[in-house]
Amino acid sequence: METTIEIAGREIPVRISPHPRARRITMRLARDADAVRITVPAGISEKRGLDFALSRRDWIIGQLERRPAAVPFAPGARIPFRGEMHVVTHAAGRRGTVWREDGDEMARLCVAGAPEHLARRLTDWLKRQAREDLLRACTRDSRLMDLSFRRISVRDQKSRWGSCSARGNLNFSWRLIFAPPFVLDYLAAHEVAHLAEMNHSARFWKLVHRHCPHVDAAEEWLRDHGRTLHRWGAEG
Question: What is the pLDDT of residues 71-102, one digit of tens each?
Fold first, then answer.
């Protein structure tokens, strides 16, 4: 069920989804939009889910107010690249697509071509960088774990940073390119380990920890900063 609720003069989209393993009604903000996601146990009416949201208006408003503002890709925008801040620069009259340059105060991501294509060109380049980094990390980890995957895909995933299919395909959010490399490395090891253990058992975590020394630091970083990864390149 998809609907909207009005809170403080704002129309907030709401999606209510039943889940067979849910034991109680839960609510969260969507990672990439000012919208509410509600999960209800099987047999619980969607109306009860909607009433749950309406009873927690103050929580919703508080979460929205704390959400970082969107930062569109435009000249002068400051965005992270592999965990370090860079300023986006339009390189008018230059050849090429996108490249990185060191700067006196801040490194630059230079985008050539017509200004109206800057956001698309930068997005495409960042996706390629994310895929290259993830392919390198997953190839390394799969060799160390004596496992193999079929292919790697990068997408703008909303609900998770990575996933592993039963057929051995690894999927990741391209937005991991904004995070420090140790976070991307952890997600790579996490999903590669799922090739052996399609669960989160003790054996799974033992395998991850054996090949990734910074599991706890990466998990903490994602808890503290993960939601900010969706602000970069979003329209305000």
Answer: 999 999 999 999 999 999 999 888 778 999 99
| Cβ pair 131, 154 in contact under 8 A | yes
Q: What residues pair up with 91 in beta bridges, in sequence order? A: 112
Q: Cα 216 to chain center, whole Å?
A: 18
Decide: helix, strand or coil at residue 130.
helix
For the chain, the distance separating the N- and C-terminal CA atoms, rounded to the nearest angstrom, is: 26
Three-class SS state of 83: coil
Identify the CATH assignment for 119-230 out of 3.30.2010.10, 1.10.3210.10, 3.30.300.30, 1.10.10.10.
3.30.2010.10
Vertex 7, ends 52 and 25: CA angle to 5°? 15
User: What's this model's pTM, rounded to 2 decimal places?
Assistant: 0.79
- CB-based contacts of 65, cutoff 8 Å, min separation 6: none
pLDDT, one tens digit per residue, over 170-196 is 999 999 999 999 999 999 999 999 999
Q: Where are the domains of the chain?
A: 2-66, 119-230
Pairing of strands 84-91, 107-112: parallel
How far is the C-alpha of 89 from the C-alpha of 112, rounded, in Å? 9
Tell me the C-alpha distance between 26 and 186, whole Å.
Answer: 27
CA distance 58 to 101: 45
Are 35 and 15 in contact, with CB atoms under 8 Å apart? yes
